Amino acid sequence: MTQQTPLSPPEFPKICTGLINGELADVAGAHLLDVINPATGKTLLELAENSPEQVNKAVQSAHAAFMNGVWSCAPISQRQSVLLKAAELIKQRADSLAALDVYTTGLVFHRSARPQIFAGASWFEYFAGRIGTQDDKLFRQLPETHTLVTREAVGTAGLFTPWNIPFQGACLKLAAALAAGNSCVLKPSEQSPLGAEALVTILHEAGLPRGVLHVVNGRGPETGAALAQHPLVQAISFTGGENGGRAIAIAAAQRFAKVTMELGGKSANIIFDDADYDRALDGAIMAIYANNGQACLAGSRIFVHAKIADRFIADFIARTHNIRIGDPFDAATELGPQSSQAHMQRVLSFCDIARQDNCEVLEQGSTQAEHGYYISPSVVLAHDNKTRVCQEEIFGPFATFLVFDDDDAVIAAANDTRFGLAGYIWTADLKRGHRTASALRSGYVLLNTPMVRERNAPFGGYGFSGVDREGGEWSLNFYTEPKTMVVPYGNAPIPKLGKS
Ligand code: NAD
Question: How many angstroms does the Cα of residue 243 sit away from the middle of ligand 1?
């Protein structure tokens, strides 16, 4: 464990709740939830859950703002300047915003939380630029007629974010939805509610009119369900787990609301024998331990070629021993605590599950502190891709190795999963790399690189990893409806029905 840094925590309010019309929601009689600091296991503050009536108030207000056009009909230049100002404020306050994520999630300040704040700001910058170059279409196939296709905001968007990327996840959704002119109701994870409130305050300060954006807080099946089921929410963008995603998709289907689902993964990381060994090793370690191992795109199934497997796995384990576990504010820390006690226990339980499935447990993860949810990484060697450690998203510092010696067989095994989010390939042979990349049934494939995010490109997955995509024009298409306008400029004859 790295040492506890003597940083005094920010002054948290005793109670956090939703922000409706820019004002804190009434907390009288609310169900209270503990918001816990994973680094200490102690309660930071209480979250007063928003009731369905409060959710209704937020959605009604967002809808009214949409209909009166204060934002939806605002000039693009006005929207751009609000988004750019918000980006500037986010960057100015990066340290305190990152601290909010650290205190509620245990994300490592220097490696995860702070870079995610800057990534969040850059989504506002990106969509401010992107909305200015959004082009409409003109078709002329019909004689003497202009057919125009424009895109306009959908209406009120319900935005659901998870605890593992609290601030950045909210920025990605809000930047695109607001750039397109929508009203929004944001529902952050009940484990990490603080950044959302700070972000909405920043947007108001940047000039976003009141009424356009609200935050509601509480448990998924309570507050979240009220938002997902609200008839005035026309688009839902969800990032989270399978169960929540399914419940929300079913609610949305009842009224044919649009949905985008960014769900989990069990991504393959394929290391061929001709790979740049050192880079592949660095990449494999990053792909499973970054973000405390709690990343949707984790390279959690590491397929390593038989010719290099013994050496690669031994080197991976040696590096794993050196991973610095500790206080998420400590500059030396590489792996912070897991997000909650239940999650920590679930991650650790997979070593027994692996043994039951005849996998070899090469490193048994264990708790690392009396207080706080610190664990050391686990490494297992599986002999069958059907085992649970190869099929289930563990979402922690838990690496599963599989050894292969045939290119076609490894592609088949990599695709033998219900998920299909990311895929990593390491090889010096570009033909082999392209062939494998083309064959992987995954939405985002990285060749000879750990995760990098291209903002113009779609991000999302096949199968149980999600529905639709986020990023670039995919986000803007989701938050807009196409509208066709047919405008003749000639006098083509109209059949005169009913005229004798
Ligand atoms: P989660 O599904 O528990 O919660 C996500 C959000 O949905 C929260 O705000 C929660 O309160 C709400 N929610 C949950 N159940 C609900 C319900 N029945 N009705 C309405 N709302 C509900 O997810 P989590 O545990 O916070 O996040 C971890 C998961 O998110 C992992 O599976 C991870 O892979 C996934 N994730 C995916 C991506 C991606 O881009 N694909 C990115 C980050 C995280």
Answer: 8
Each residue of 328-361: pLDDT tens digit? 999 999 999 999 999 999 999 999 999 999 999 9
Q: Is the dihedral of CA 408, 312, 400, 457 positive or negative?
A: negative
Q: Which pTM does this prediction carry?
A: 0.96
pLDDT at 3 over 80: no
DSSP 53: H
Q: Are 252 and 154 in contact (CB under 8 A)?
A: no
| DSSP-assigned beta bridge partners for residue 485 | 148
Residue among 163, 48, 58 at smallest CA distance from 100: 163
Choose, from 296, 351, 359, 390, the residue flagged as catalytic.
296
User: pLDDT tens digits for 22-69?
Assistant: 999 999 999 999 999 999 999 999 999 999 999 999 999 999 999 999
pLDDT at 407: 98
Interval between CA 236 and ligand 1 midpoint (Å): 13
* Six token digits for residue 64: 């009214």
Q: Could you say which of 16, 49, 171, 173 is catalytic?
A: 173
What b/e sequence results for 267-281 when a residue is b if at least 16 CB atoms lie within 10 Å of its CB, and e otherwise? bbbbbbbebeeeebb
Check if 173 is active-site. Answer: yes
Q: How confident is the model at residue 6 (pLDDT cuts 50, 70, 90)?
A: very low
Alpha helix positions (H), 141-193: 166-179
Q: How confident is the model at residue 10 (pLDDT cuts 50, 70, 90)?
A: low
Report the residue among 248, 250, 470 best suited for mutation to probe ligand 1: largest number of ligand atoms under 8 A from its CB. 248
Which of these, 339, 331, 376, lies nearest to 101 by C-alpha position? 339
**What are the E-state strand segments in 154-257?**
156-160, 183-187, 213-215, 233-239
Best of 55, 243, 254, 263 for a ligand 1 pocket test (most atoms within 8 Å of beta carbon): 263
Averaged pLDDT score across all residues of the chain = 96
Ligand 1 and 236: CB distance under 6 A: no
Return d(Cα 372, Cα 335) in angstroms, integer.
13
Is the beta carbon of 250 within 6 A of some atom in ligand 1?
no
CA of 165 to the centre of ligand 1 (A): 10
